[in-house]
Design a protein that fits this description.
Elements lengths: L10 H22 L7 H9 L22 H14 L1 H20 L2 H12 L4 E4 L9 E4 L5 E4 L1 E5 L7 E7 L6 E5 L8 E3 L14 E4 L4 E2 L4 E2 L10 H4 L1 H26 L5 H29 L6 H37 L6 H11 L5 H13 L8
Parallel strand pairs: 1-5
Antiparallel strand pairs: 2-3, 3-9, 4-8, 5-6, 6-10, 7-8
Helix pairs in contact: 1-2, 1-3, 3-4, 3-7, 3-8, 4-7, 7-8, 7-9, 7-10, 8-9, 9-10, 9-11
Length: about 375
């Protein structure tokens, strides 16, 4: 296949590259959709299109999607990738998230070092979910290094992500520390049997045991507990919601194609359902625009603005979840049992989107919105 291999140096160019690539990602999705699989070709295409470095500033060879003013093209880039393949979108969102966190929290030398790794084709990710019973711990060694103990679950891209950004507990209750694991040198032990999911098979979200691996002090990113600082921690939900909306858009497009192929476009009930789906999709696009505007507003990242930023992100992710669930319900009625048989893509799209919508603490996110408005606060007060 042919992809755009010219450098992308602006946020708009990154968005256009993702839009161009989405149909190719969609065509490749079924082949990678196996337990333990990984969309290797799709990530090679993302790299060739310049999208693995898009979150870097132009000075480091990126497209500048890291800038607050680029929030809308960032979200639209993620939406296009999700439209192509939700599994790719999930891992790509983690890649961008890790690079953004390193730029926000790392030292100047670390930012330069990991930017060079991204340009060299290394895939980043964020592994945060603790494996019971105790999760990951860092043990200080006399030589200034750290030895790791414990494991993470839902380690998306495990075995392929070579620069996972991971949280671990420091000794003596000092807090949670972010660190980058050079996984091609310090390779975790992977339990592939953990990942037997309903959907998102191709994300390779295995259990990763880090016990016995060692870090240099320069592998630590930021001060303790920096990962959980607001608004970046909860406010980042707008990114995965944008990927989810891309999946809903794929459901809409394939439903329309299916009905056209059957010659069912004159059925008034099918037209009614497609009309409802079109309204939902446009509503989702407006939520993406609103979330981008909110994230880019002056003061969004200040202590005063953090609460409003988080509340708006929680509102947006809740709305996108409802849109996606309704889109799946209407698509089922449109295509019937016949449309849910392979090789039609609905079975995979339904599994992947249903699984990906199960993000942490949905009830808490909605309750936070209610608390915020009950206190008489405004999303646009800054």
């Amino acid at each position: 296949m042919s992809v755009n291999t010219s450098p992308i140096a602006t946020p708009a160019a990154a968005e256009a590259a993702a839009a161009q690539l989405a149909p190719h990602l969609f065509a490749q999705a079924a082949e990678a959709d196996v337990e333990g699989g990984f969309p290797t070709q799709s990530f090679a295409d993302l790299a060739a299109a310049g999208l693995l470095t898009a979150a870097l500033p132009a000075a480091f060879g990126g497209a500048g999607l890291d800038a607050p003013a680029a929030a809308l093209p960032l979200l639209r880039t993620l939406q296009h990738v999700g439209r192509g393949n939700l599994a790719v979108g999930r891992i790509y969102e983690g890649h961008l998230n890790a690079l953004l966190l390193i730029q926000q929290l790392g030292s100047a030398s670390q930012v330069a070092r990991y930017a060079a790794d991204a340009r060299a084709g290394h895939l980043f990710g964020v592994w945060n979910t603790e494996a019971p019973p105790e999760g990951v711990h860092l043990e200080a060694l006399p030589n200034g290094r750290y030895r790791l103990r414990g494991a993470k679950t839902f380690a998306s891209g495990a075995g392929h992500v070579s620069r996972p950004l991971i949280t671990g507990a420091l000794p003596n209750g000092q807090g949670w520390q972010l660190f980058v694991l050079p996984a091609e040198v310090q390779a975790p032990t992977l339990d592939r049997s953990f990942w037997q999911p309903l959907g998102m098979r191709a994300t390779a979200s295995f259990r990763a045991d880090l016990t016995g691996l060692e870090l240099e002090a320069d592998d630590l990113i930021g001060p303790p507990n920096a990962y959980y600082q607001q608004p970046a921690f909860s406010g980042g939900a707008i990114r995965f919601a944008a990927v989810q909306l891309g999946g809903a858009e794929a459901v809409f497009e394939e439903t329309r194609n299916f009905l056209r192929g059957l010659g069912r476009t004159d059925d008034p009930y099918q037209r009614q359902r497609l009309g409802e789906m079109a309204i939902m999709l446009e509503s989702g696009r407006q939520w993406v625009r609103g979330a981008a505007e909110n994230a880019a507003r002056p003061g969004a990242a200040t202590p005063e603005g953090a609460e409003a930023t988080v509340a708006y992100a929680n509102m947006m992710r809740t709305a996108i979840e409802a849109i996606c669930l309704d889109m799946l319900r209407l698509a089922e009625r449109c295509v019937g049992a016949r449309g849910l048989l392979r090789p039609e893509p609905f079975e995979r799209l339904h599994r992947d989107l249903t699984h990906y919508l199960r993000q942490p603490a949905p009830d808490g996110a909605l309750a936070d919105v209610g608390r915020f408005v009950l206190e008489g606060k405004s999303f646009h007060q800054l």
